[in-house]
Amino acid sequence: MTAADQTTALNSLGFAKAPGETRVVVAMSGGVDSSVVAGLLKRQGYDVIGITLQLYDHGAAIAKKGACCAGQDIHDARMVSERLGIPHYVLDYESRFRQAVIDEFADSYVRGETPIPCIRCNQRVKFRDLLETARDLDADCLATGHYVQRVLGDDGHSQLLRGADPRRDQSYFLYTTTQAQLDYLRFPLGHLEKPEVRRLAEEFGLIVADKPDSQDICFVPNGDYASVVSKLRPEAAEPGEIVDVQGNVLGRHDGVIHFTVGQRKGIGIAASEPLYVVRLDAATRRVVVGPREALARKVVGLRELNWLGGAIPAEGLDVTVKLRSAQPAVAARIFAASEKGTARLELYSAEYGVAPGQAGVVYGGERLLGGGWIARAETLAGAELAA
Fold this sequence. Notes:
Layout: H1 3-8, E1 23-27, H2 32-43, E2 47-54, H3 58-62, H4 71-84, E3 88-92, H5 94-110, H6 117-136, E4 141-143, E5 148-152, E6 158-162, H7 179-184, E7 185-186, H8 194-203, H9 225-232, E8 240-244, E9 249-253, E10 276-281, E11 286-290, E12 297-307, E13 317-322, E14 330-336, E15 343-351, E16 359-364, E17 367-379, E18 384-385
Parallel strand pairs: 1-2, 1-4, 2-3, 4-7, 8-11
Antiparallel strand pairs: 5-6, 8-9, 10-11, 12-15, 12-17, 13-14, 13-16, 14-15, 16-17, 17-18
C-alpha cells in the first residue's frame, strides 16, 4: 500500500480502521457542544461512550443554573445519551476535583492572585484522570466539545490551532495540554461556528439544542468568588489597608479577595482621578492603587511553562500572546529563562492590568505554542514588581 493509499484509508478521526472498530470516549458536560460531538460521532458510525464527571456536591448543584457539571447537566447528558443510543457513565471525581482545583483556586486568591480554575480542571482532571479512564476503556481517543482545531504537523505529531470561529476559540484554556495528551485528543467542533452546532443539535433531536451556554465557574454560584473563598479560606476576608503606590494610606477594605489587578470600579476611594488596583500584597493585606499608567507592563514572567513549539532560540522568538482570555493577542518576544519551567515575555507595546494567576498563552500565527501562569510583571521603567 502506498503512502497515499494509507492516507485515504484513515477515518475522520485519523485511525486506519473502520469507524465501527474505533472506540471514542466523549466528555459530556450536559451542554450543547459536547452533546453534538457525541451525535456527530454516533452518526458517523463510531463506537461512542459518553462520560460525565460529577465534580462537586450534587445537592448544591441541582439548584444551580448557568454552570457546567451541575445536577441538571448530568441529567441532560444522560437524556442525550439515551436519545443517541450510546452508553453513558457518571464518574464521581468530587474528591480529586476538590484537591486539584477548588483548594488551589482558594489558595490562589489568598496569595492575591486572580486564578482560572477551568485551566486547572483541564490540566489535572479532564486531560489527566478522565483521559486515563478513556484508555482503561480501550478507547482510541477522547473527544471534547472545545472550539479548537487539531492538525498533524510535519513531524507526525499533533498541533493545536485556534478554533475557526474567533468568537468561540477556547485554545487559551487548553495551553497546559501536553504533546502526549494532544495526540490522544480529538476536537470535532473546531471548524464549526456555534449556530451550526445548535442546528445540528436540533437535527439530532437533542433536548439541549436551545440550552444557554455556561457562564459561571461550576462551583461558584452566581459568580460570587469572594463568598466561596471566604468560606474555604476565612483569612482571605480579613480587612486591611488601601494604599497608593507611595504607600500612603487612603482607606480600608474588607479583604483582598474582593479585588483584582486592573480593577477600577468598586474600590471605595474618592479621588480627583480614576484609581486602579495596581497590586495586591496578600502578606500585608494591602491593596495598592494608582493611576492607569501605573499598570503599564512590558515584561511578564511565566511559571510552570508548558511548551509545544520546539526549542526556544537563545535570541528569543517573535510570537503573539494572550494575557487574559477575553483580550486579543498582542505582539511579544519570548525568551527561555534560566530557571527550568519559566520564561520571559517582552511585549512590544505596554499592556495594562496584567494579573498574576492569569495565564500568558503564546501563539505562532494560529498555532498554540504553549504558555504559563503569569508570575510577575515589570514596569516600563524596568523595576520588577511582585505582580
